[in-house]
Amino acid sequence: MYKLDRTLDNIVVLGIETSCDETSAAVVMNGRNVLSNVISSQINLHQKYGGVVPEIASRKHVEMIIPVINQALEEAGMKIADIDVIGVTYGPGLVGALLVGLSAAKALAFTTGKPFIGVHHIEGHIAANYIEHKELEPPFVCLVASGGHSHIVYVKEYDQFEILGQTRDDAAGEAFDKVARALGLGYPGGPLIDKASRNGDSSAIDFPRVHFGESCYDFSFSGIKTAVLNYLNSLEQKGEPVNVEDVAASFQQAVVDVLVDNTVEAAKAKEVKNIAIAGGVAANSLLRSQLKSAGSQYGFNVFYPSPVLCTDNAAMIASAAYYEFIRGRKSQLDLNAVPGLRLGQR
Ligand code: KG4
Ligand code: ZN
User: What is the pTM for the complete model shown?
Assistant: First the structure.
C-alpha cells in the first residue's frame, strides 16, 4: 500500500486541461479532494460541424483559459499564492489546443516560481477514479475509452502503466460519434446513442464483435461502424424505415460486449482484484451496469467515476499531477506539447 510522506501533507494542485474541446481548470488537495473543477465546454461551437474543428478549439481555449483559471481559484477560495504545484495536460491531443493550456501553466510557473508538471491525458482519465473512490489504489486494470483512445491499462503503481490492449483502428467513442451521425442523432454521439438505446431492442440486429483470440486484448471498431452503415444503406435501397432505437441499442450492445469481455479477461490474466473504467465512454450506462454484473460474477470490484469526471476535466489532471509530484517529478519550462504522446513516455 502507498504511504504518504507526512512532510508532503496538504499539497494543493492547480490542474489545467485543454487537450480537446473542453477548457478546464481545477483545484485539488492531496490528489483526491476536489475544491473546484470548472469546465467550459465548446460542444455548441463544434456541433454544426459534427466533430471538433481544431482551429476553432484553439481559439476558444485562448479566450477562455484565463477566466476559467480565475474561476477555479475563486471557487476554491484561493489565490495563486496558495497553490503548491501546477499540473497540465501536455499530450496526447490537438497540438494547438494543448499549447494553450501548457503555455498558461508555464507562464504561471515562471512568474510565481512554482513547480509545474506535464501530465499524460490518459493518466489523468485513470486518476479520475481516485477522486471518488478513496479506497482505490494500484494495482488494478483500467479500461480507458474516449473519443480518441481505447486502451486496457495495467496500473501497476500510480505512475507505472502497462498497455495490455488498444484499438487497432477507431476509438470506441469515435465509433459512437460516427454511428450517431449516420443515424442523424447529432454530436457528441455517445450520450445520444446511450439515450436512444433505452427504448430499443439490443438483440434486434446482430452487429459484429471483433475478438483477436486468447490473451490479446486489442479492439477494432471500424468493422462495426461499417456494418451499421451497410445496414442503413440496405434499408434505404429497399425503401424500408430505420428503427433508430433498435440500431442504437444493437450497436451499443456489440461495443459494450467487447469492451467488457476484453477488460475482464485482462483483469483475470493480471490477477487483480479491482477493475476501473475511465474516459468519456465510461459514462455509458450499459457499460457501467454490464461491467458491474461481470464484476460480481467473476469476483472483481468495479469502479467508475461520476459522468462529469469521465469526460475531460482538470480535476483528474490535478490528481495525476499530485501523484507524480510526491514521487519527485517536475517538468522544465522547455516542455513542449506532444500530440501523439504514449502512455508511460516521459
Ligand atoms: O474523454 P472525452 O471527453 O474526450 C476525449 O478524450 O476523447 O470523451 C469524449 C467521447 C466522445 O466520443 C463521446 O461520444 C463519448 O466520449 N461519450 C460517450 C458517452 N458520453 C460521452 N460514449 C458512450 N456513452 C456515453 N454516455
Ligand atoms: Zn479525454
Answer: 0.94
